[in-house]
Amino acid sequence: xxxxxxxARARAIDxxxxxxxxxxxxxxxxxxxGSGLLYCCSFMAATARDPGLQSRASALTVDAFRAWxxxxxxxxxDGTAASVTTAAQAFDAASRIGFTYPHVRRxxxxxxxxxxxxxxxxYDPRVEPPPANVPxxxxxxxxxxxxxxxxxxxxxxxxxxxxxxxxxxxxxxxYCGSRFGVPLRIRYEDVMEWLxxxxxxxxxxxxxxxxxxSVYCITHIVYTLNDYGRFLLSPAWLPxxxxxxxxxxxxxxxxxxxxxxxxxxxxxxxxxxxxxxxAIRYAMEYLIDSQHTDGSWGLKEGKIDYRxxxxxxxxxxxxxxxxxxxxxxxxxKMKPKLLSWAKGK
Length: 345
Ligand SMILES: [Zn+2]
What we know:
16 helices, 2 domains, mainly alpha
């Protein structure tokens, strides 16, 4: 390992962290980046190998969580399923640095039962596959019901969310709920039952959007199964996903997309590849070179928005060291299923 690579890597992580600290101190920063910011800090605090990074991330989690709860001093629940999901996510994030909230968990568990499954996920994963008729939020800002073709507010034709994205958003939400002990009516494992059906991943040649959804679907399978960086995964559990990542890792670099490159690298490393692997090393060097002078990554034009924050988060996860010590699953009972699905059964 050359010293100059290690020094450049450490410097990039340090500058990235300073950028994220700056965002969280900004007025309105927390509203803009929401539970994403909380998660970014708490995952880092829970899984970073470097003690310095760990303690900075921990301090930031405490501040961000305090600000998040202060904003909701009137109550966590506004009568919607979305507010239950958001609260479960925020408290799950805080629980990763050791806070426990048994009373909040109990209260949320009751509130979660006030809503039907499709209010959380737009469909019911127990009885149907992820659907292809969930509309995107309209450009006018209106959310329309599943099946709608035109916006009820402005009449515009609606685009549909691809089924693969519907699925990975649903299993990621279900994971957050299950992880905090507040099932959103169903368990993470129920949503993952669709893995064999949804495994029709698309290559870059099959279109940018389809490829993009395939990548983020796969990385979120990795993250939810390895508890966002806590465990290593065996390629034998997810051979199709591993193969896809190992085949297409260079595409985001060719497209100058640090967000996606970061997701590829930490996912491949979760499968046990290290920076001694030329592909991983090359991708890390790309990340170091594509950082902006303010410490961020991603689109440079315009105001700093969620995408730039997310790209910075993903790039830092691509570069930083994880504290994993062994292979494991956040839901260990899924192992026999994964093995049998891997064989196409
Ligand atoms: Zn509209």
